[in-house]
Amino acid sequence: MTDPLIPHIHSIESIQEEGGGVLTLFFSREGFSPITPGQGFKISVFGRGETTGVVSEVSKDCFGVSLQDVDSVTHRLFLLSEGQALGLRGPYGNGLPTEGWPEGKIGLFSMDMGLAAQRGLVNALLAQGKEVVITHLTTDKENPVLAKALEKASEESSPIQVHLIASKDRGNQPWETFLRDQIMKKKILQGMVGAAVGGTRPFQKVLMGILEKSRLRDKDIYFLVNRNWTTGLGWSNQDLLAGVNIWTRGPVFDLATLRDLSEDALGLND
Asked: 0.90 exceeded by the pTM?
């Protein structure tokens, strides 16, 4: 079994450009511990440095790690080809739950890269016959993060219901008012029994306020509290939540656990 703390050399099985400046690299699962969507991997680019990616797809034989082109290290990854070698460390964290959801509609709320980790969860839920609703807030409606995945999910033949919300439509409204109005107008919460949220801390804070007033149970609402995909995994204050390393107990927490950890559960005051 591969030691998650030590970089190991792995060849790229395949590469998928997702649109919106997002790339997914696929690797063989051989030698790795169980892998779940939402976990993190450290990726070493020889001669350039190390960056962080999120597990976005998991199959029987391989897994995909998605990342966004944000610096010189990630830019180099966009220039690589299949068969080239990288250093991998991981997986880190607990990931999103792929089983144990209540019967009924499952809502996935995301902003930009927050959608990446949820794609693997979508596949797992659909395989179980679950009804899935994606509500995605994009800062670039013309070229959203994971544009190709969103386009496929929005096809008429897709079993997924997709609501795409553009941040530019907010105008001068407060974020909370804008998102609440969009969600209520589209009746997105109707019939929903479980939810997962991924995105920036302000986005998650607003969704927490909306979802905790719904009929959903706290233990059926999950937040991927990922603060630092592009730098460290547990070695800076950015990876602490009320003194707890999010990569030890998280980065996925249900709402009940977040309340126990901190009054300011998503750490917006740090």
From this structure: no
